[in-house]
């Protein structure tokens, strides 16, 4: 099941690539540039469409969000039941209540996007979940269980900020993480730490592209970064834009920290990330006089650097939680 979900996420790019590059009628004749379809006729992009996986069903506004909310809600409750210590019943129920409240707010906002109160409620629930990760550790939770509220917080923000055409992809990504969690629970920790860390990095890259991102600046979603805002704030908009781009890697990495201790996962993750950055730095230096240095190589380098910055943020949070102080 883990392999199937990963294949579905990758096929969102590859099937459309094949269709357009081979002039299949359904895409060759399409001129639709509405939300989710704007890249289908752009030959400069590797991401050729961000159509919903349920595009053919023509669901009314809000309905796709609702069923994805239900799926992620079930996952969140199931994850809390299995990952948070049984002795911390009151704390676990409190986290569940906050999480479910956030999901209801997300669903309500999808039906009434003009009512900013629902978005504000979602932000508040996400913030409470983030802070509650520290509280879990004080109730006898393991180092891994502290990351469950943080993961749920990321899912809430992803549901709120991602475009509706990406929500079914979030549901598939959610199923993928459920399979990954189940697989790791059946294995000995010593046998899976390195394997799980490598798989985490692989799935995070897959999730990055599956949510409609590429190595070009034109695919950055800026409009959704203003969700629920009544006044402009450069810091808030910048953070939300960053999170929208990094939603996939964020939920995957935080989900991994609920399975394997951060102290065992981080060395492998950073080794692979830095090795990748080193190799690409050498390539960029070798290609510094290439005709496409600013249109192809430089943007990818900027994304590499942005990923490293985000990895630093996640690492600081992981180390702080693992050490028992935030």
From TrEMBL:
Domain GPI ethanolamine phosphate transferase 2 C-terminal: 155-317
Organism superkingdom: Eukaryota
Record-level GO BP terms: GPI anchor biosynthetic process
Keyword vocabulary terms for this entry: Membrane, Transmembrane, Transmembrane helix
Alphabetical list of InterPro entries matching this protein: PIGG/GPI7, PIGG/GPI7_C
One GO CC term, this protein: endoplasmic reticulum membrane
Keyword Methyltransferase in record: no
GO molecular function: CP2 mannose-ethanolamine phosphotransferase activity
Pfam families assigned: PIGO_PIGG
TM stretches of this protein: 94-111, 117-136, 194-212, 232-260, 272-297, 303-323
Name the UniProt record assigns to this protein: GPI ethanolamine phosphate transferase 2 C-terminal domain-containing protein
Organism: Aphanomyces astaci (Crayfish plague agent)
